[in-house]
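Protocol step 4 of 5: obtain the predicted structure for the target chain.
Materials: sequence only (see below). No template structures provided, no constraints applied. The aim of this step is simply to have a reference model before the mutagenesis design in step 5. Sequence pasted as it appears in the construct record:
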Amino acid sequence: MRQAAPKGEFTVARSSSGIVAGLTAAAVAAVAFLAYQASANAPASVVSTPGPKTSASASAQPSAKPKPPADPLAVPAASGEGERVVYALKDRRVWLVDEDNEAIRTFTVMPSPVSPPPGVHQVTSRSGTVRGSDGVPIEHVVRFANVDEVTIGFSAAQDGSMASPDPTSKTGGVRMKRADGNAMWTFATVGATVVVVP
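Step 4 output (structure tokens):
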């Protein structure tokens, strides 16, 4: 014969299962609500939208391979051919390019407040050591352009500094590190081509 459970125990068991069921339903509803809120506020780049379904039997189409990023140290394409110095104004970079169009050296520079115009220039004069128009002792000066009576040229400060010049000054010294100045001095003799690109 089956024994009947005392009345109080039966009620407790029934109400605890009801509590568990109620808590579970509340938790599922809360998770569903939070999931909806998250999808409603998610950026478009992460929201999945239903699209056309493809089947396994669909023909495979080759996907376009992404282009490799351009080498930031590569000689600018629109800088001419042959042996030359290339000065990129925006990049604040110089390349010494040999007759085979290969960069034999590239380095950053500190541009002058007065910039040369883009185009092809020639080295017009050089000086071993002088005082720059900003008063700083400089060496290996390679001059190649004039803008509104301001001479533009590459140089290295003898103390090795590459401080940013006063933007209100009318100076044309494009500064580089001393080692780069030595390389420029050896490479860019009078008559050498200097190509300035934007």
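Step 4 remarks: The longest helix spans residues 7-41. The helical segments are 7-41, 178-187.
Proceed to step 5.
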